[in-house]
Amino acid sequence: TTLLDDDDVRLPAVQTLGNVVLSEENIREARDCLPILMSFVQNSHADDALRLASLVVLTNIATISEWHDEYCPLLHRLYNLVDSNNLHIQLQSLRLLVNLSCNREMIPSLLAAEGPRKLSTLVVATTNEAILLRVLTLLATLANAVCEDELNPSLDLPTEDKAASPDTIHDDASSPTSMRGDRYARLFGVNVRDRLVAQTQALFENHEDPEIQRQATRLYRALKD
Q1: Distances from the Cα of 205 to the Cαs of 143, 214, 224, in angstroms?
Q2: What is the pLDDT of residues 165-220, one digit of tens each?
Q3: Whether the Cβ atoms of residue 92 and residue 55 lie closer than 8 Å to each other
Q4: Is 115 left (phi over 0), alpha (psi -120 to 50) or beta?
Q5: What contacts 24+ positions apart, CB below 8 Å, involve 63-66?
Q6: What are the Cα distances from residue 65, in Å, to 31, 158, 160, 200?
Q7: Which of 73, 86, 96, 157 would suit a FRET pair with 103, their CA atoms being 20 to 30 Å apart?
Q8: CA distance 138 to 218
């Protein structure tokens, strides 16, 4: 952690950390770095290289579900980075979100966080295949969890605002139920759902990649249920 506080060696230190945080033993050693790595991702003034390197380490650490709840304050930022024009940051953010979505206990928080603005525009055949696969995987996992666990976005999502961005916090007149519903709508609201159904059908019928077809089918079936 001391090295990560030094501006001159911060980027190479994080990059080195990403290369060694691959085994469970090393991941557990790196656990104390979570807060500062998250701050590098959250900080809008951080350069893209540092943000990307931090995302790589956070993704590796997230292969162990033990500390996933500590990622909740970062979820809105991760969704925001899915809208990034930097392909590498966009992809790494999605990889991390997919890792977190593998933990069923994280699903309510992932649904409660404000989703990407450009989400539905990515679910098309012209999207980079690595991006498209992870978008479909993430959405299919979330949609299936909603169906299987019978989640009600108005009632079952977290009431605390730890997964929200400051601009989603309403005044006292706004109810927690309304806030949860608004954020959920960004991912699976009626208009988004209808668009995703049509888009996923086109993908599983026409896309050449079998894994993209499979994830598109998973999402399509969950949305149609």
Answers
A1: 20, 10, 16
A2: 433 323 333 444 444 445 555 566 667 888 899 999 999 999 999 999 999 999 99
A3: yes
A4: beta
A5: 63/27, 63/99, 64/24, 64/27, 64/28, 65/102, 65/103, 65/105
A6: 12, 19, 21, 29
A7: 86
A8: 11
